[in-house]
Amino acid sequence: MNEVIIATKNSGKAKEFIQMFESYGITVKTLIDYPELPDVEETGETFAENALLKAESAARLTGRPAIADDSGLVIDALDGRPGVYSARYAGIDKDDKANNRKVLKEMAEVVDDQRSARFKCVLAVSFPDDRESIIVEGDCEGRIAYEESGTNGFGYDPLFIPEGFDQTMAQLEPNMKNEISHRAKALRKLQVSLTELDGGMK
Ligand SMILES: O=P(O)(O)OP(=O)(O)OP(=O)(O)OC[C@H]1O[C@@H](n2cnc3c(O)ncnc32)[C@H](O)[C@@H]1O
Ligand SMILES: [Mg+2]
């Protein structure tokens, strides 16, 4: 495999996948390269259901294996919200600024030791033939800051302080995020699953 399709229209995710796959010598194409493909409605109740919906649709429509990422932020003090609704938490889809403001407001009165949270990433690989889809997941533990800091990354990165750091994900170098992130952990598991398939990832 020297090219892979990632079924995402999120440019932040796309950039990270391009960087992470570089080390395997694999070129990444995303749905940004296939503007004619229709949007998939994320009607699932779990990250896995939504990842599968996106991967199956892309594999069917492109005729090639496709990987989809469904991910989000799970905050303990908010009973797991924003969770699967992370992209549209403040109402409008993919308004990162508004989503971050809403989370900060809801977390304003929450004390230090109750600010635990994790990023979750579920990756699904689907095939255009009758091979079964593969699902893997990765978590990144951390806590919610009191204000936004940093400009790297995307989404909730300016609010999220990963375990073992005193800076937000948006203040870390992209290479560091791509070592420790939920997405990196899921991708490492996928590498293991894919090497068991014909051809593998190399
Ligand atoms: O469905 P696609 O096209 O992949 O793009 P999306 O942005 O809609 O992606 P999701 O449905 O998986 O929603 C995930 C949301 O969770 C947040 N998120 C996911 N991974 C993140 C990360 O690494 N850093 C910060 N926020 C993240 C971000 O707000 C995303 O919009
Ligand atoms: Mg989405």
Verbal overview:
The structure is a single chain. The protein has a single domain (3-195), classed as Maf protein. The radius of gyration is 17 Å and the shape is globular. The protein has helices at 11-22, 47-62, 96-106, 174-180, 182-195, and strands at residues 3-6, 27-30, 66-75, 116-126, 134-144, 160-162. It has 202 residues and is an alpha/beta fold. The protein has a 6-stranded mixed beta sheet with strand order 2-1-3-4-5-6. α4 (174-180) packs across α5 (182-195). It is built from 5 helices and 6 strands, in the order βαβαβαβββαα. The mean pLDDT is 94. β4 (116-126) and β5 (134-144) form a beta hairpin. The longest helix has 16 residues, at 47-62. The site of magnesium ion has 2 residues, from loops.
Indicate the CATH topology.
Maf protein
- Can you count the helices? 5
What can be said about the biggest beta sheet? 6 strands, mixed
Strand element count: 6
- Shape, per Cα inertia axes: globular
Instruction: Determine the strand fraction and express it as a percent band.
Output: 15-25%
In spatial order, strands of the major sheet run 2-1-3-4-5-6
What binds here, in terms of ligands, is: inosine 5'-triphosphate, magnesium ion
N- to C-terminal distance = 6 Å
How many domains, in number, for the residues? 1
Q: Which percent bin holds the helix content?
A: 25-40%
User: Class in CATH?
Assistant: Alpha Beta
Average pLDDT reading: 94
* Structure classification: alpha/beta
Order of helices and strands: EHEHEHEEEHH
The low-pLDDT segments are none
Question: Can you tell me the CATH architecture?
Answer: Alpha-Beta Complex
Q: Gyration radius, to the nearest Å?
A: 17 Å
